[in-house]
Amino acid sequence: MPEGDVLHRLAATFDQEFAGRACRVSSPQGRFAASAARIDGRTVAGAHAVGKHLFVGFVGAPPAEPLWLHVHLGLYGSWRFAGDEDFAAPPSIGAPRVPVEAASPREGAWRPPEPVGQVRVRLSTDHGVADLSGPTRCELLSDAERRSVEAALGPDPLAPGASTDGAARRRFVDGVRARRRAVGELVMDQSIVAGVGNIYRAESLFLAGVSPLRRGDRVSRTRLGALWDIVCRLMAHGLEAGRIETVDPGDAPEPPLSGDPEASRWYVYHRTGRPCLRCGTPVREQAMQGRRLFWCPSCQR
DNA sequence: AACTTATGACTAA
DNA sequence: TAGTCCTAAGTTG
């Protein structure tokens, strides 16, 4: 479920709330028990995200080599957080879509709550815990292994300075131009651009006016460059806002469609058959690689 | 209780 | 392209 914006927020949360602290690592569910034992008690060095991949670094006493916890949330993985009054993490990041309620006011010394549901990994410090459930990937990597995972990814629109990084922009444009597959498939290909998922695909292609069905090698460099800029802008906004919002206020109908502001939170995503917010043409939907694809056949050529 | 859905990605054929 | 994996919530019967 999460796209790159969520992963970068997650990395920032771990960096702020866990870095520099000694950390207990366990696997309440049991499936990560052996790996958890290898880093239990180590200190968190820091965390970062590349695309949809999260890396949390753990330093050990020499000669133990540093190890990275590598997590990919997949379609429905999530982290839940809880901690004392100085613990600034949100209640959850990732699925479930409806955030869990904040913990009730605590009194006295903070104590970690019991894990709820299937918790693959629990990271626990003296002021907060993070529980991971439902990841599609969760493993321990050496630094070399971490670098090779990152090397397989395309440019990340949320990497520091990405929006003004000409080389990253060119890598994206060249990557798409080199293939005959549909652009709609290419922007979801993590080796072409890292972090774009089903919502950013639909919305960025709409804003760029590019049909997702058009072959990559038949989209002009100019339009692909503009598409990269749009992806950078949308994802930076999502990271800041804490949720994916793509509709320019000038395009939002007033009063809101069917009285529901959420009905025009996106231009085309999940709006099959409803009028395009720009031109009124019914939004179209078709399956692409097993995912639902949405676009306006009139605005997107 | 069974079925459906979800912001993902891999493998086999 | 189909099947598989990971989990929880919502809908249907």
Structure at a glance:
Helix content is 26%, strand content 19%. With 301 residues, it is an alpha+beta fold.
Q: Tell me the Rg in angstroms.
A: 21 Å
- The CATH superfamily of the largest domain bears the name MutM-like, N-terminal
Determine the N-to-C terminus distance: 28 Å
Count of beta strands: 11
Helix-strand layout with pairing:
Layout: H1 4-17, E1 24-26, H2 33-39, E2 43-50, E3 53-59, E4 67-72, E5 78-83, E6 92-94, E7 121-124, E8 128-133, E9 137-141, H3 143-151, H4 166-177, H5 183-186, H6 198-208, H7 221-241, E10 284-288, E11 291-295
Antiparallel strand pairs: 1-7, 2-3, 3-4, 4-9, 5-6, 5-8, 7-8, 10-11
The structure holds a DNA duplex (13 and 13 nucleotides).
Care to describe what's here?
With 301 residues, the chain is of the alpha+beta class. The protein has two domains: 4-151, MutM-like, N-terminal (N-terminal domain of MutM-like DNA repair proteins, Alpha-Beta Barrel), CATH 3.20.190.10; 162-295, Orthogonal Bundle (Helicase, Ruva Protein, domain 3). The chain is 26% helix and 19% strand. It is built from seven helices and eleven strands. The chain has helices spanning 4-17, 33-39, 143-151, 166-177, 183-186, 198-208, 221-241; strands spanning 24-26, 43-50, 53-59, 67-72, 78-83, 92-94, 121-124, 128-133, 137-141, 284-288, 291-295. The strands form three sheets. A five-stranded antiparallel β-sheet has the order 1-7-8-5-6. Strand 2 (43-50) and strand 3 (53-59) form a beta hairpin. The chain binds a DNA duplex (13 and 13 nucleotides) through residues 1-3, 5-6, 52, 72-78, 94-98, 117-118, 120, 133-138, 188, 190, 197-201, 244, 269, 289-291.
